[in-house]
Amino acid sequence: MQLSGAEILIQCLAEQGVDTVFGYPGGAVLDIYDALYRDGRINHILTAHEQGAAHAADGYARVTGKVGVCFATSGPGATNLVTGIATAYMDSVPLVAITGNVGLSMLGRDSFQEIDICGITMPITKHNYIIKDVSELADAIREAFLIASSGRKGPVLIDILKNVQTQKTEYVPATPEVYKPKATPELQAKKLAEILNGSERPFILAGGGVIGSGAERELLSLAEKLGAPVGCTMMGLGSIPASNPLFLGLIGMHGTHASARACLDCDVIIAVGTRFSDRVALNRDKFASGRKVVQIEIDGAEIDKNVSTDYSVMSDVATCLKAVLPLLERKDRTEWTNRCIAIKKEDVIKAPVEAYRILRAASEIFPKDTPIATDVGQHQMWTAQYYPIEAPRLFCSSGGLGTMGYGMGAAMGACFGSGKKKTLLVTGDGSFNMNMNELSTMVTQNLPVVILLMNNGVLGMVRQWQKIFYQNRFSQTTLHKKTNYLKFAEAFGAKPLLIEKEEDIIPVLKEAYRAEGPVLVDCRISPDDNALPMIKPGQTYDTQIDTME
Amino acid sequence: MQYTISALVTNKSGVLSKISGLFSRRGFNIDSLSVCKTEDPQLSRMTIVLNGDDYTLRQMVKQMDKLIEVKKIMPASENESIFRELLLLKVSASADIRNQIVEIKEIYKAKVVDLSLNSMILELTGDPNKLDAFIRVIQPYGILEMARTGITALKRGDECIKDVESYEDLI
Fold it and tell me: Which of A49, B29, B83, B130 is most buried by its number of CB atoms within 10 A?
C-alpha cells in the first residue's frame, strides 16, 4: 500500500498501540496533523504549550508503563519539548517525541522555524533520528519504540523533514517487537543469593528500576523472605505499598529517620534498580562505609559509578530477582526487622507542617489507587514523605531533573493514562506559575484533576536553603504576587476552593473530591514551614537536621 | 595512564558528534581519536586514546556502549594489540643540511615524500613512541609543520572486535 510519510507515521503509531498523543500543531507538522485528522484512531490532546505536552506524555508513560508520545512542530515547538524530554531522560521514562522540520531543500539554511533538534537533544535522549527519506521512516519509528521501552527506559526523538511527510512509499505493516530482558546467569544469581543469605541485617534500597521493570511482587518477596526493611528513593515510591510494615519511607536528603537509621545499621545494602544519585548517596565515598553493597541494575554504566559495589548484577530487576528468590534461605532476622519497624513507629513528626495535615486528609479522602503528581520544591518532599503511595505507577514526580512546572502536564497525562480517574496534583505557587496555562487544557478535557496548590507566597525550598546556607538573605524568593488563584481558576473554568484554616481541610477536600472536572484548591500555608528532616549535601545519614530554629 | 579503546560504530552522519559530545559532557580527556572505514560499509572503526584512570576507562566503555550507534566496543590491551600511527612532518631543509636529515630518516625508516628548495616532507609509520623519538631528533632542524593521524589499533591473533559479545569481561 503506497502511503505518505505522515500516513506511515500514524499507521506505525497505531501498530504500537498508541491511543493518546499530546501535542501542538504548526507549519512543519501540518501533514502529520492532516493524516491524524483523516485517520481518526488516535486521540490527540491539544495542550497550551509544547512543554505541557512533553510532561503529559511523561505522566501518561509513568502511570501506564507504556511509551508516552508527543508531537511538536519545528523550531520553537521542538525546543519547547526540551525540558520535558530532559525530565523523562533523567527519570528513565519511555517517551517518543515526534517533531517536524523544514524540507530537505531548506535544511541547513537557517530557514524559518528551522532548528537542529537532534543536536539539541543529543545529551537528553537515549537516541534520536532525523528522517530525510521516507524509506527510513517506518523502521525508525518501530526502532524508537523498542529503544524507549527496553533496558533502562528513556526518551527517543524522531525529527521528520517536511518533504518526508508527503513523500510516498510502500507501507508494509509489522507487529511490534517485544523487548525481552536477558536471563540472569545462574552463577551470578547464586553468588548474589550467597551474600544475601549471609547477611544478618539486610536493607533494601529500592529505586525506580523496580517499577520500570515491573518487579514489585519480586521486591516484596525479597523483603519478606529476608526480613529486610525497604527504603525508597523518590523514583522508587510505590514499589512497595506504603502500608507494608517493612516500608521505612523515603530515603535520602529528605528521607525518614527510620530509613536513614536502617541504612546506617545494616550490614548489606541491597540496591535494587537505583543509581545512588547525590540526593540519596549525598556523600558517595562514605555512603556505605563499613557495609557491603550489592546492586541489581540494568544499566551497566550505573554500576560502580557513584558508589562502589561489593557485588553487582547487570540485569533487569524482575528477571534477576526471579532467579535469586528460590535460592534464598529462611533465616530468623526478626530482631533486626523489629528494631527497624520500631524506629519507624517512633518516628513522629517533630514539627508538623501545615501541608502535612492537608496531605494526610487527602490520603484518607481520595482512594488508594489515586494517581498523584507533584511539582518540585518543599511540597514535593512533603508529598514524598507523608502521602502513602500504595502501588507502583501512581506517583509522578520529577526526581532527577527537578523540573518546576512538571506537575500540570504530568497530572494531565496521569489522568488520561489512568482512564480519567480522579487525579491529585500537589504543587506550590512557584511551580504552578510556571505552567499554569495547562489549566485551560484540563478544563477543555474536563479532567477530574484536583490541584492542591500549596500557596505560601515564597519559593519555599530555595528559601529553606537560604535559611541554612545564606543567613536568611532571602534573595528573590519572596514572590509578592497579587494573583488571586480562586479568580484565576474561575476565569479558566475550573472549580475554585480555598483552605485557609485547619477546619477547612476536610470539608473542602471532600468537596474537591466530589466535584466534576478540574478543581484548584488554594491551600494557604505558612512561608516558614520547612521540609525536614534534611541532610546537607555531602553529608552522611547520621547528620539529619530535624529543626531549624 | 593511557588506555586505547576500539569501537565499531554505525557509519552515519552525527555519530562522531554524539561520541565527542559524550566525552565532553562526562569530562573524559582524550589524547586522540581516529575514525576510518571498515570492511563492512555499514560500520566505521574508532580508536580512542583516553588519558585517565581505571574508573574513567570503565565509565567510558560503559557509557559509549549505551549509544545505539556503538555496535562493538573493547579496550585494546597493551600486550595483545598492535598500535600504529602515521606522521607527516615538514622540516626546514636547505641544501647544506639535507644529507643529515636523510641520514636520520634512514635510521628510523621514514620516507621522503616531498622535496622543495628549502624544506622536505617526511613520512613515518610506527608505534607512537617511535614517532615521538623521531620528532625529538628532527626538532633541532626546525619543524615547519606536522600532522599525526592518532593511534589506530588491532588485536593480535584470530579474534576480531566483531566477535566481542560484551565488554563486561574486558574491563
Answer: A49
Q: Which domain holds residue B21?
A: 2-80+156-163
Q: How far is CA A547 from CA A130, A250, A430, in A?
A: 53, 18, 24
Instruction: Give dist(CA B83, CA B149) in Å, integer.
Output: 12
- The list of chain B residues with pLDDT below 70 reads none
Q: Does B65 touch chain A (CB under 8 A)?
A: yes
Same-domain check for residues B118 and B86: yes
Same domain, A405 and A513: yes
Range of the domain at A7: 2-170
Whether residue A210 sits in one domain with residue A323: yes
> What confidence tens digit (pLDDT) does each residue in A278-336 have?
999 999 999 999 999 999 999 999 999 999 999 999 999 999 999 999 999 989 999 99
For A99, the grid coordinates are: 517533531
> Is the Cβ–Cβ distance between A58 and A393 less than 8 Å?
no
What's the per-residue H, E or C state across A360-388? HHHHHHCCCCCCEEECCCHHHHHHHHHCC
Prediction pTM value: 0.96
One-letter amino acid identity for A479? L
Does residue B62 share a domain with residue B12?
Answer: yes
| Residue A50 among the catalytic residues | yes
Set A126, A153, A162, A421: catalytic member = A162
In chain B, positions 119-138, which contact chain A (CB-CB < 8 Å)?
none
Whether residue A267 contacts residue A200, with contact meaning beta carbons closer than 8 Å, is answered with yes
- Alpha-carbon distance of A16 to A529, in angstroms, equals 46
